[in-house]
Design brief:
Helix content is 71%, strand content 3%. The C terminus is likely disordered.
Length: 524
């Protein structure tokens, strides 16, 4: 059951990361945008893509259901990736342009429109996919069965493990295709994979479990809110238009009115309780935003840094700069089994918890590691700039710096270690701490952390770029050898420190929800 569901999720993650992980190279190369402009555009797109799942979750939980939402999102994904591949054919540029030897001509308006339209269609497809697939996979474990309930916590670990393992391999392969063959081919490969995964997902249709919570309207919270508003407006209009001197009412109509009023009261009380459930998560949600800002740097500035270093391995092989992100996934693949099979059993002896440590303790540990990754990134960038000055390469941005690419490995490893704790912990926390009928919305709230975090990152980049440019030299210069990304990283590290203090305060005072019962049914 979970295997077919995992296949479509892995293909979706391949597709999304296959588009986003090296996007800054495409924007600054074939599309000819500046580094700060490209990084800001990527963060805005990521922000929109990570916020749209809130809408997708509402539609899934209230109307379409998770299964139908996954189907619709998969079709949109296939169309978007096909359009993205076709948009590269509109360019008169070479995929390898963008350096001193091969400057890029300006892209046409048609190409830019086609590219960004298909890019945001990818974000729209993720809106229906991301909050539903993982929740649908977790739904395959029966909470009323003690053995299956205990396995669900491990499900989140192994789910992320399988995605990270596949993504690590895919990033290396796609980065080679994009840098050496062509962007159109890489987008076409992703389109074919998404289409194949949809077929696999459909093959498992008759084996899936579907969960329903006791109640009728309470199973559809967003629709219930709309109905409550409509009912209130109708009641208000009736009171306004009724003439009390002419009105004649029977006992039956009075009884009907009382029943309607009682139903509205019950609905309002239900909505109030659901709102309280979501609102109590907001302090944790808000204190994880800086973590998302840190994570957003891996696909933008980390990649541009790597492109300036000596990337040779042996005499012939040269590592694509975006391929360094595979070490994040490799770290996840190595550490997740250790966490699940070694750390959790060890911690369980002392805490008595089935999960070893609480979800909030796990998230906080990852936030500490994320802070350390920014400190290391700042120190490595300081070292890189010193090597640039010593070698006299400040005005030669296209000449590789005599500093090995592997200097950047520790910061990628720390980001991966932080993912094992914070990313997986957040997924489980927002799935577990909402009511059973709001599971898709819970995972959408988790994704929205990264949406808002990307918007914050975009604002920081644009603000710092403008502020430092007016003083003579931008910290985020198109020539990184003249910039100061190390200062930018130190700012994020300082924000992470303050954010971590706030997180600890809210985590200590947080009270976990009590469990509720559900009905498990199988629909054919």
């Amino acid at each position: 059951m979970v295997g077919s569901d995992a296949a479509v999720e892995i293909a979706e993650r391949f597709s999304f990361f296959g588009v986003s992980f090296n996007l800054i190279t495409y924007l600054t190369g074939p599309l000819g945008e500046g580094i700060a402009e490209a990084a800001s555009a990527i963060n805005i797109w990521n922000g929109v893509a990570q916020l749209l799942p809130l809408l997708g979750a509402a539609v899934a939980d209230s109307w379409l259901g998770r299964f139908r939402s996954i189907l619709l999102a998969s079709v949109i994904y296939i169309l978007a990736l096909a359009m993205l591949a076709l948009s590269t054919l509109l360019s008169s540029r070479s995929d390898k342009c963008g350096d001193a030897n091969m400057p890029c001509p300006s892209p046409s308006g048609l190409q830019m429109a086609a590219f960004y339209t298909s890019l945001y269609m990818v974000g729209l497809a993720q809106a229906g996919h991301k909050p539903c697939v993982q929740a649908f996979g977790a739904d395959q474990f029966d909470q009323s069965d003690p053995r299956e309930a205990a396995s669900r916590s491990s499900f989140f670990n192994w789910w992320y493990f399988s995605i990270s393992a596949g993504t690590a391999i895919m990033l290396v392969f796609l980065s080679y295709v994009q840098d050496n063959i062509g962007w159109g081919l890489s987008f076409g490969i992703l389109c074919a994979m998404m289409a194949f995964s949809l077929v696999v997902f459909l093959l498992g249709t008759r084996t899936y479990r579907y969960y329903y919570v006791f109640g009728s309207k309470q199973c559809r919270p967003v629709a219930t809110a709309c109905e409550a508003f409509t009912s209130w407006r109708s009641s208000w209009r009736k009171q306004k238009l009724t003439n009390p001197l002419l009105a004649t009412s029977t006992l039956e109509s009075r009884s009907h009115t009382k029943d309607e009023e009682q139903e509205v009261v019950i609905t309002h009380a239900y909505l109030l309780e659901e709102a309280k459930v979501v609102l109590r998560l907001l302090p944790i949600w808000s204190t994880c935003l800086v973590y998302a800002v840190t994570f957003s740097q891996t696909s933008t500035f980390f990649t541009k840094q790597a492109s300036t270093l000596d990337r040779r391995v042996g005499h012939r092989l040269q590592v694509p700069p975006a391929a360094m992100q595979s070490f994040i996934c490799i770290t996840v693949v190595v550490l997740l089994p250790l966490y699940d099979r070694a750390l959790v059993p060890l911690a369980r002896r002392y805490t008595g918890l089935s999960s070893g440590i609480t979800m909030l303790q796990r998230i906080g540990t990852g936030m500490v590691l994320s802070l350390l990754s920014m400190v290391v990134a700042a120190l490595v960038e300081t070292r890189r700039l010193q090597v640039v000055m010593d070698a006299g390469l400040a005005d030669l941005p296209d000449v590789p710096i005599p500093m090995s690419l592997w200097w950047m490995l520790p910061q990628y490893v720390l980001v991966g270690a932080a993912e094992v704790f914070t990313m997986v912990g957040l997924q489980e926390f927002f799935y577990d701490q909402v009511s059973d009928k709001l599971r898709s919305l819970g995972l959408a709230l988790y994704l929205s952390i990264f949406g808002i975090g990307n918007f914050i990152s975009s604002g920081l980049i644009s603000g710092i770029d403008r502020a430092t440019t007016t003083r003579g030299q931008s910290w985020i210069s198109n020539n990184l050898n003249r910039g100061h990304l190390d200062y930018f990283y130190w700012i994020i590290a300082a924000l992470s420190s303050l954010d971590l203090l706030l997180y600890v305060f809210f985590a200590v005072t947080f009270k976990y929800k009590t469990k509720t019962s559900v009905i498990v049914t199988r629909i054919y």
